[in-house]
Amino acid sequence: MKKLSFIMLLSVLSALFMTGCKSDTEPKLDRPTEFVLNTPPMANQTIILQSKDDSDEGTDLYLTVSQPNYGLGVVTHYEVQVSYDKDFKDAELDADGKEITPANYRSLYTVDTQAKIQISSFDMAVAICSLQGLTEKEDEPLFDPTPRPVYVRVKAFIPHCAYSEIYSNVISLTIQPYFAVRVPGVIYVVGDISAVNGNWDINNGAIYLSEPENGIGSKIYTGIYEMAADQKTFRFYTALGDWENNSIGYQVEDKATDIQLEDGVYEGNAVSGKGSWTITNWEGGKIKFTVNLAQEGSYSVIFEKVEDED
What we know:
The protein is mainly β. It has helices spanning about 1-15, 120-130; strands at about 45-50, 60-65, 75-85, 90-95, 100, 105, 115-120, 150-160, 160-165, 170-175, 185-190, 210, 220-225, 235, 245-250, 255-260, 265-270, 275-280, 285-290, 300-305. Strand 19 and strand 20 (about 300-305) form a beta hairpin. The longest helix has 16 residues, at about 1-15. It is elongated. Residues about 1-20 have low confidence and may be disordered.
């Protein structure tokens, strides 16, 4: 019985060793040699990208690929890359690693794990604008919306396994883009702190929280503001102009709930609703708001008193 148990244990350990990119002395993934990006039916027509501001769903694109031959059942990651040149060229670096010539392609922000890759119109539009050298809102007057061929390839890889990378063949799509750049998202603080002439103002965007520059798309928003002792009630809005929609609060019902900072900090949950927070022991000073909307149905907030540095 002990011998049988030992053999079973060895079998389990062997199976565990076969799960990813291991050292040379352990079983590992095969280096892939085959990876195909299929030409979609829409390749012979002009694809007109539309933002969600212009249509209910925007214009999502779909590409299908054959999974690389890794030899093991693993979760493959797919990164879509686009260029105005059918020959994709990496950035040229000098001896010190400083970029001399940038790459002539852009990688889309979203990485998929399905062989049917879904590409949002926004991600594609951002990449095409970047190919035109447009990365800031102020660049919009320079934007060229003319439909033109965009060359597409896909990089497949297994995270933390460098030799797993393989590039597909290149296909051509004719795309008419719209102007789009990735900028930090914001939400607004509406309440006593943003009141105008003593009245709460749904159109006052002066007090807002923002995603960090290195966290665009994270849906985690922060901001630090001076808040007087009598400005202790507030809630948040993801968009201005409408009291009834886009609100983030303590609860769904439109009423204020008393809370207190403990050791200068309050941590709690939030919902899509109009229930405001009132910090009853707020005595004035700087406050840091952090609102995490990353997971639908599981929002959270942190309110923290910021001590002045000596």
